[in-house]
Amino acid sequence: MNPRIIRTILLLFLCITTVSVAKAASTVQGRIYLKDGRVVECGEKDRIKLPKHAQDVKLLRRAFYKDKSKEVYRYEEIDSIVCWHATAPEHPQKFIPAPGVGWLWVYFETPHICVGVFAQKGYGVDSNGGIEVLVKYRSLSRSRTAYYLRKTGETEFYDAGSASRRGKDRFRESVAAYVADDPELAEQILQSETSDRSRTILMLEAYRPEKNQMFNN
Questions:
Q1: Which of 11, 107, 124, 186 could form a disulfide with 132 if both were Cys (CB 3.0 to 4.6 A apart)?
Q2: Which of 140, 97, 102 is nearest to 120 (CA)?
Q3: Distance of CA 133 to the CA centre of its chain
């Protein structure tokens, strides 16, 4: 192939990548819930910079003005962040700090279980309200994304495995073992033939540990 054509293709790829990253890395509106019960509100002109790893959270007051100021809230003092894209306040997203892991996006939670996604490269909220999990744009190097599970009443999260890979019985076995206190669901997970890990994880919405407890009493 002509070297000029190759360079053009690479340049186009780089431009597309840069736009996607910039879009996903935008700041958001929202609230910061602190462990001491306080709630830090983000005004219409304020923005929260979404954190990654175990970073502290930065709130930019009057973010787009010359007199903007910055407030920093420590990772250890935050209970959760509820945020949204300025154009889609009807679609809030929730992030929580997980000890020993970092910031998790709450994929879903029920009265019995919380499922979070950890993204090594961080997160973004799209203009339609959806979440964007950032990855490395290289065919041989994707940044780590993983599912973390926590039952109601527990303090530590369980690492269920990678969110970006496909299939394999070991993943289903890992998830089923964690919800073994709901034998019916655990068996359904083990018998599932799907290779889509997100479908396996979504089965956890049916997790009901009290069913097993009720039968044992």
A1: 124
A2: 102
A3: 7
